[in-house]
Amino acid sequence: MDAFKDFLDRIDNPQHRARTEEVLAWVTKTFPHLVPKIAWNQPMFTDHDTFIIGFSVAKHHLAVAPEQAGIHHFVDEIEQAGYDHTKELVRIKWDHPVDFSLLEKMIEFNIRDKADCTTFWR
Hints:
This protein is about 40% helix and about 25% strand. It is an alpha+beta fold. The relative contact order is 0.17.
């Protein structure tokens, strides 16, 4: 979590900071082989130097970015969880619970799908 300390310290809203820290800590604990890093001023996790998942903080939500392939693969589950989404990210409103089982599936999908990927992005 040291990789994210400065990022977390800049989140003014204590509830938003706590939620973001909870999610980042969960990813770190659940997927200890992923590398935590800050890039483009956002926390993300990589595997063999390829992007797996990223996060960003907005006024009304925590954004989860599993790349377009991750959104496409889980679109039905994302919508069933009650999350808004675009082609590139999922919006988890601050007052909604985090569906950690869905987050786990998205990360596992990207790890498997990008196992032989030699670039940062797909």
